Amino acid sequence: MKAIQTLWGAATGGHTQPPLMWQLSLHFLRRTFGRVELYADAQGRAFAKGAGLVYDTVHELPPPRTGLERVWSVGKLLAAAQQSEPFLHVDGDAFVRKAPEAAAFIVQNEEHWHHGGDFYQWWDAVPFRPVQGAPIVSYCFGIFGGMAATEIATACRQAVDFMEAHAAKMIALLDTHPCAPLLATCLVEQIWVPMLLKEAGITPTPYLRSGRLWDDAVSKKFFHAMDGKRSALVQDQVQALAQHTL
Q1: CA-to-CA separations, 233 to 86, 92, 137, in angstroms, rounded
Q2: Residues 145, 89 contacting (CB under 8 angstroms)
Q3: CB count, 10 Å around CB of 201?
Q4: 183: containing domain
Q5: Nearest one of 207, 221, 84 to 139, comparing CA atoms
Q6: What is the rounded distance in angstroms from the CA atom of residue 171 to the CA atom of residue 174?
Q7: Number of C-beta neighbours around residue 244 at 10 A
């Protein structure tokens, strides 16, 4: 199994995770998997060069044709859609110290959403609809991939094609809610792609089993290092880890 990462600079206007996090993430991937490949657009390649990130192979990743760059999941879905051999995609703020056990479809962890109101207007933009008020099962794609590379690639390509075909409706929704890009990302990446794979008889295998993501992140020592707004991990802890690692 190879490891891959995506630097889709257009998705965030160049505001990626700090270079130090990427350096650590790549370091652990190199130590764990050996082979690490990057999928990036021009802006992402410039970031990688400036951060001193060296990959075995760098693949060109074009932006979406219809301006969906505000939905940052598109970049990693485009990368996954190109895979034909077992892989694990790892975000630049995820530190994987141990390779997952072989499974058809690996996800970071299972989550349960309870949303209503504004969130549900998004279901009109995608071809599925849960019962309003009922818990929604999603799967975090901080890491994802697996042995069923062809099937995962097909599902990711189908999701991107749908977004591009219905871009006008989805883009119109991006300004309706401060968390709209996050909602779009979660709907397509974390909910719809797993649904497509479940329809093909492929069920997700979580890397983190407890479902308590941030407790696991802390106990696993920086597994998924986010800023202080989303976890107990802070930048000085990441710098301390770097001093003992890099």
Answers
A1: 31, 15, 26
A2: yes
A3: 9
A4: 2-245
A5: 207
A6: 5
A7: 6
Between CA 113 and CA 74, with CA 89 as vertex, the angle to 5 degrees is 65
Unique residue bearing structure tokens 């060109």: 60
Q: How many domains does the chain fold into? A: 1
Cα(149)–Cα(169) distance, integer angstroms: 30
Cβ–Cβ under 8 Å, residues 225 and 21: yes
Helix (H) or strand (E) holding 155: helix 149-165
Question: pLDDT tens digits, residue range 172-181?
Answer: 777 776 666 6
User: What is the domain-level CATH number for residue 71?
Assistant: 3.90.550
User: Cα-flanking dihedrals φ and ψ of residue 199, to 5°?
Assistant: -60, -25
pTM of the model: 0.83
Q: Record the tokens describing residue 211, joined without a space.
A: 């479902």
Distance, in Å, from the CA atom of 152 to the CA atom of 144, rounded to the nearest integer, reads 10
CB 30 within 8 A of CB 90: no
Q: In this structure, is the dihedral angle defined by the CA atoms of residues 92, 40, 59 and 151, taken in order, positive or negative?
A: positive
Cα dist from 145 to 42, 74, 245, whole Å? 24, 15, 26
Q: Give the pLDDT confidence of 102-155 residue by residue, as tens digits.
A: 999 999 888 776 555 555 555 555 555 555 566 678 888 889 999 999 999 999
* DSSP of 32-49: HHS-EEEEE-HHHHHHHH
